[in-house]
UniProtKB/TrEMBL annotation:
Name of the featured protein: NAD(P)H-hydrate epimerase
EC numbers: 5.1.99.6
Catalytic activity, as annotated: (6R)-NADPHX = (6S)-NADPHX; (6R)-NADHX = (6S)-NADHX
Encoding gene per record: nnrE
One Pfam family matching this protein: YjeF_N
Lineage: Bacteria, Pseudomonadati, Nitrospirota, Nitrospiria, Nitrospirales
Organism, scientific name: Nitrospira defluvii
Domain YjeF N-terminal: 22-222
């Protein structure tokens, strides 16, 4: 089966990459060209917060949002987004799947979040009270097997919450390369993927798809041998269609 092709509204084709290729993009970025992980995570989280505001529409000021975060980079982007949303007066509840396992940069994002008025709860404290938006930042492109507890329970909670779901980079539980689902998988209304689309982001799995700029320079993609034309204009994210 041929790989999916992704286009912006302006007709610009954006190259799709496998998980292994995206891992190499991240390596070149952090080791050679920059930006560093702190910068990219901040850019991802701010863009995610902006898209959350956009999809909420006029009700954003009174919205109740639950952010589900994993322990890696994807989770750090979610924690960052939670902080930006709280700073705009929104009621945000942050639930970190395994807070004791947070990587260094996500842990720093959590430290900043703790200086806001946002609420952090444990996975066992999640209730069925109505929410207006669930943000999925549990697992990124590094999925290697079916999600395990407590992440799998959080995925099931999100899917059963009745709230629309906005996924960061990859719907948690989705294989970024193949589009397969080895276990529980988030069923999003929207997905905001980062830097480049992944080959597994099939339309039936992602909801409406957006691409976000996290500050990676074009030279990084050139070193990968990718044919890349900057898809961003005055904004920092664009809608993508898959053909």
């Amino acid at each position: 089966m041929s790989s999916p092709r992704f286009f912006t509204d302006a007709g610009i084709e954006v190259p799709a990459v496998t998980a292994a290729q995206m891992r190499e993009v991240d390596r070149i970025t952090t080791e050679e060209t920059g930006p560093n992980l702190f910068q990219m995570m901040e850019n991802a989280g701010r863009n995610l917060a902006l898209l959350a505001l956009a999809v909420l529409g006029e009700v954003w000021t009174s919205a109740r949002i639950v952010v589900l975060a994993g322990s890696g980079g994807n989770g750090g982007g979610g924690i960052c987004a939670a902080r930006h949303l709280v700073n705009r007066g929104i009621s945000v509840t942050l639930c970190i799947a395994e807070p004791g396992d947070l990587d260094e940069v996500p842990a720093f994002q959590r430290k900043i979040f703790r200086s806001t008025s946002g609420r952090e709860i444990t996975p066992t404290s999640l209730t069925v009270e109505p929410v207006d938006l669930v943000v999925d930042a549990l697992i990124g492109y590094g999925l290697r097997s079916a999600p395990r507890s407590p992440v799998s329970e959080l995925i099931r909670w999100a899917n059963g919450s009745g709230a629309p779901i906005l996924a960061l980079d990859i719907p948690s539980g989705l294989d970024a390369t193949t589009g397969g689902t080895p276990g529980d998988c988030i069923q999003p209304h929207w997905t905001m993927t980062l830097a480049l689309p992944k080959t597994g982001l099939l339309p039936q799995r992602t909801g409406q798809l957006f691409l976000a700029d996290i500050g990676i320079p074009e030279q990084t993609y050139r070193r990968m041998g990718l044919s890349y034309v900057n898809p961003f204009t005055k904004g920092f994210w664009v809608p993508l269609t898959c053909r």
